[in-house]
Amino acid sequence: VSRGEAELIVASLLEKPRFEFYLNDSIDQESRQLLRAKLMQLKKGMPLEYVTKRLHFMDYSLRIYPGVFIPRFETEYFIELIEKLIDFVPEQILDIGTGTGAISIALAHLYPDVHIIATDISDKAIRCAQENIKEYGLTDRIHLLQCSICNGVNTRFDLIISNPPYIPSSRLHSLPKSVRDFEPMLAIDGGQDGVQFIKLIIQQTAAYQNPGGVIALEIDED
Ligand code: SAM
Ligand code: GLN
Fold it and tell me: In the beta sheet, which residues pair with residue 215?
């Protein structure tokens, strides 16, 4: 990495602003130990986001913990497409498999009056999303529900959105090692043909769609 990148990494690992290194180029013993431990995690291949427990998604700075899926660039593009392609203002959104809450938080800002129900089966994801939703002051507009898909939901929605697990099981072994070793397969494994969740979502949400509503799903390019 370049000197600039190294400074950014050290600054985020120590949770200090980058300019501090210009004012003070020595670090105390405790910080040095902490830094060494975090650099060892990076060396083992742990994604930087899990080491710093922070990430950037669109304009948002989110908390993340190991065990929770790291939002990807393609999902930022997915949100941009939603904004372009949906020609009405949704009032009720269902976000299935919310992970860090990234999609819900972005949509709550895009549609300032919308109410969102965000589900996830993982308790780690629900706790992480809870923290992010609270940090953005959105607890009264985004309601979290720990369940499978939309089990227990009894409202109707005009936008049902999901970035479900969609990698075919047979292709999991060819994912990058940092993904295989550190990210939750529960978030990525889309079953034999990769469309297991897509089918379930379409079947199980049919009863919860408002007339004229839209289902938007991120899917694999294959
Ligand atoms: N929406 C987030 C994002 O785009 O960054 C996370 C997407 S991640 C690819 C898929 C999410 O679906 C994971 O958080 C996982 O825990 C959740 N999930 C897996 N199976 C589920 C199920 N049966 N019902 C609800 N959520 C599920
Ligand atoms: N795009 C993700 C990856 O490359 C997979 C995301 C998903 O299954 N929704 O690992």
Answer: 160
**In 3D, which of 173, 215, 179, 210 has the Cα closest to residue 197?**
215
Q: How far is CA 216 from the centre of its chain?
A: 16
Q: Residue 24: which residues within 8 A CB-CB, separation 6 or more?
A: none
Q: Is 20 exposed, middle or buried (0-12, 13-18, 19+ CB in 10 A)?
A: middle
Contact 110, 83 (CB under 8 A): yes
The minimum-distance atom of ligand 1 relative to the CA of 71 is: 5
Rg of the chain's alpha carbons, rounded to an integer?
19
175 lines ligand 2 (CB under 6 A): yes
Instruction: Name, in order, each residue with C-beta under 8 angstroms of 201's C-beta and a sequence gap of 6 or more.
Output: 96, 149, 160, 162, 164, 215, 217
What Cα–Cα distance (Å) separates residue 195 from each residue in 147, 171, 189? 19, 13, 10
Closest approach atom of ligand 2 to CA 74: 1
Number of Cβ atoms within 10 Å of the Cβ of 137? 9
pLDDT, tens digit (0-9, with 9 covering 90-100), for 74-120: 999 999 999 999 999 999 999 999 999 999 999 999 999 999 999 99
